[in-house]
Write a structure and sequence with these properties.
Strand order of the largest sheet: 2-1-3-6-7
CATH architecture: 3-Layer(aba) Sandwich
Order of helices and strands: HHEHHEHEHEEHEHEH
Number of strands: 7
CATH topology: Rossmann fold
Number of helices: 9
CATH superfamily: SGNH hydrolase
Largest sheet: 5 strands, parallel
Structural class: alpha/beta
Radius of gyration: 21 Å
Length: 252
């Protein structure tokens, strides 16, 4: 068998190095890789920075579109239940853990010391899998339950450093999909099982209220989540009722 030429050796080495780089990129946990988004996202992020600078909010809801929805389908219950507690809504539709991490590193909460942060994030990490992620250079996005949980942990750690006296009510990711056999529902459950372990009963408290939205057989009714992901007005009423007592207790 002839010995490999220098040219073929170099080509083989280059191929190996390229494969190694691709493998490293694939193995990278994108859920903890802080990234901003574009367009209206930037303006909303900056509005949170302005709210932060005022230093008035005592209760902050932090998350994605389900949190932002307090301004839509949940606006009436928000006005009745949370406004009296000097609440602010730091939710942005489509956000994943890495976006919230970036926001926290770039001005969100700089200037305020709320008594409580209500955090729910991660369903978009689950739901974005298999799609190109523009913020990460267009790579196909992956985020397992373990990776998403690592992203949640980083958010909790940043909040702890920025707001050491602020308590966090960490909510389990709400159920999605029609039945308990839905693959994304299963991943959210797996993520919840992991993040529940981050609660210490002192600074971080965990609540999983997802079951209140479900039928006894695990079916998610469209009468509460019409698209099997986002709450309607009734859903926000149920959410508020489920956590109001805990929120007020933690804010004492």
């Amino acid at each position: 068998m002839p010995l490999p030429t220098m040219k073929s050796f170099v080509l083989t080495l280059a191929t190996f190095c390229f494969a190694a780089v691709c493998l490293a990129e694939t193995a990278k946990n994108l859920a903890i890789d802080p990234k901003p988004r574009e367009g209206g996202w930037v303006k909303r992020h900056e509005s949170f920075n302005e709210i932060s600078k005022k230093g008035e909010a005592q209760l902050v809801f932090l998350g994605d579109s389900i949190t932002q929805g307090w301004e839509g389908n949940g606006k009436e219950v928000w006005a009745k239940t949370w406004v009296p507690l000097k609440a602010a809504n730091f939710g942005i539709g489509g956000d994943r853990t890495e976006h919230v991490i970036w926001r926290l590193q770039n001005g969100n909460f700089d200037g305020i010391k709320p008594k409580l942060v209500v955090l729910m994030i991660g369903t978009n990490n689950t739901g974005h899998q298999g799609r190109p992620a523009a913020e990460h250079g267009g790579v196909v996005y992956t985020s397992s339950a373990e990776q998403t949980a690592e992203g949640v942990k980083m958010i909790l750690d940043i909040l702890g450093k920025k707001l050491p006296e602020t308590k966090v009510l960490l909510l389990g990711i709400f159920p999605r999909g029609a039945t308990k056999e839905d693959a994304m529902r299963k991943q959210n459950v797996a993520t919840n099982n992991l993040i529940a372990g981050f609660a210490d009963g002192k600074r971080v408290h965990f609540m999983d209220i997802g079951s209140i939205f479900l039928q006894p057989d695990g079916t998610l009714p469209k009468e509460i989540m019409p698209d099997l992901l986002h709450l309607n007005a009734k859903g926000y009423e149920m959410w508020a009722a489920a956590i109001e007592g805990k929120v007020k207790d933690l804010m004492k």
